Amino acid sequence: MNTTKSPYTILIVDDVSKNIQILGNILSREDYQIAYAKNGEQALKIAFQQEFDLILLDIMMPGMDGYEVCIKLKKNESTKDIPIIFLTAKADMESIVKGFEIGGQDYITKPFNSAELLSRVRTHILLQKQSKLLKNINHQLEEKVAERTQQLENANQRLSILDKAKSDFLSIISHELRTPLNGLIGLTKLLDDSSIDNEQKEYLSYLKDVSARLVNFSDTALLITSLRINQYEPDLLPVSTQHLIESAIDEFKGGKQDHILNITSETQHPQEMILADSDLIRRSCCMIIDNSNKYCGTDSKLHIFTKLTPLKVCIIFEDNGPGFSKEALEQLFKLFSTTDLMHAEGTGLSLAAIKLIMDAHNANISVENKDGGGARVSLEFDFIIT
């Protein structure tokens, strides 16, 4: 004989004692734990004090009927999820629909069929069990998500602090470099105007080149810092692509009198314009030209041209150098990469700075090796102004 009581508790609500007795006898076959109430007020008092897995609720009762009891149960936070099976002598569709509309899950008509009653009770007990299990799982998941979210917020906060510290450090280093560099550049100019022999001139030329590279590094580092912490707001105005290319070439040649790069350029339409910060885009073009000059080698050539589509305009740079190494292509646009970023070697600043500049313009940069040798860098803008 099985003496184990069912863990499930059922509340029977009916104003007729005989009906409660019949239902209790049927449900005792499954060893359910039974409680009962003979009116609506008593049912609510018991339901609010004790937890139930199912309520069998008579509709037609004096005073507060089953519909009103159901409505009050569904409005209460502690009882709103308990499934309710209506007990009714009515089998008309209107009564059944009303019961479903106010939150009932099922109904059983009188006189009771024991097999039907037990089947429906088992079904709703099982559904209630699964619902509680799912609710517990969701609660655990919510706690886990909240915990992970907090961990991510803490990690992001730490990263933000570290990123600001890195930006501040880079900004300080860049500013500190400028003061001694300005003095160094001034001294080289004075020496250049003095009487020195050829060997000394060679040393002086090397010193000027190193100074120029340090100045370029400082300027680029400051630009990157400003763009990364959103201190530089691009001044977007219509600007001619032909003017941008020509001014970038002139700026490069003015600072590189001894350059070996043979530069050619062309634009598809003299009037083509883009919406851009002309200073930032010119600096981007200068950095690309300067990198080509560094790494193309002897007989170095660079062709700059534009390409138009119905929605975009591209400024394209193609050189005849060795192209990008495999390591460089894998590390494009990363700051301070230990591998090269332009052809053979580099600090990792130029392309990173250009990428930030293009991002500030909602524009794109693409870098690739040409099939016949050499490298191709494309600056692609989304808007054309004519």
Description:
The protein is α/β, with parallel strands linked by helices and 386 residues long. It has 3 domains: 9-112, Response regulator (Rossmann fold, 3-Layer(aba) Sandwich), CATH 3.40.50; 152-228, Helix Hairpins; 237-381, Histidine kinase-like ATPase, C-terminal domain (Heat Shock Protein 90). Helix content is 52%, strand content 17%. The chain contains 10 helices and 12 strands. The chain has helices at residues 17-27, 40-49, 66-75, 93-101, 114-192, 198-228, 241-255, 278-295, 326-330, 350-360; strands at residues 9-13, 33-37, 54-58, 84-88, 106-109, 237-240, 262-266, 273-276, 301-308, 313-319, 364-369, 375-381. The protein has a 5-stranded parallel β-sheet with strand order 2-1-3-4-5, with helices on both faces. A hairpin with a 4-residue loop joins strand 9 (301-308) and strand 10. Helix 6 packs parallel to helix 10 (350-360) and helix 8 packs antiparallel against helix 10. The protein is rod-shaped and about 125 Å long. The termini are far apart. Residues 337-347 have low confidence and may be disordered.
